[in-house]
Amino acid sequence: xxxxxxxxxxxxxxxxxxxxxxxxxxxxxxxxxxxxxxxxxxxxxxxxxxxxxxxxxxxxxxxxxxxxxxxxxxxxxxxxxxxxxxxxxxxxxxxxxxxxxxxxxxx
Length: 107
Hints:
- The protein is an alpha+beta fold.
- It has helices at residues 12-23, 42-45, 61-72, 98-105, and strands spanning 3-6, 26-31, 34-35, 53-56, 76-79.
- 34% of the residues lie in helices and 19% in strands.
- The longest helix is centred in the N-terminal third of the chain and has 12 residues, at 12-23.
- The relative contact order is 0.24.
């Protein structure tokens, strides 16, 4: 099963690359209403202590986004890659699992 661990020491760029390489999807990471700086660590853009957790393919997109917010204090959204053949740049439906979305939208 596709999965990886997320921690506060991880940079936004590393997180997004892991997510893209694991699921073939885009992970939009926000600091407030703006996209977070790619070079920032998750701990540096969070208002709380970042808890470590695993990102797994069997998690529903909505549950992953909620769990990420709960563990890190950071808002994320799962989206289709801009160069994907189907629905480029669209947000992924919250009812799909990460694995289903990967198979459906991976370029």
